[in-house]
Amino acid sequence: MKKIIPILATLLLFNKSIACLNGESMVLKDGTYLYFDREGGVPYGHIFNDEGFKSGIRQLDSLYNQTKNLDYLSDKGLLLILMKRYNEAIKLYLEIEKIMPNRYSTASNIGTAYELLGQNKKALEWIKKSVQIDPKSHKNSEWIHVKILEAKIHGDQFISTNFLLNTDFGSDSIPKTTLKQNELIKLSDALYYQLNERVSFVKPKDKIVAQLFFDLGTVAFLLENYKDASSDYEEAKRYGFTEQLLEKRLTETKRLSMMPKLQSKIKLAIDNNSKSRPNAFNFKYGLWGFGFLLLVIRVIIIYKFRKKKHNPLN
Question: pLDDT digits over 28-37, tens only?
Answer without folding.
Answer: 776 666 777 7
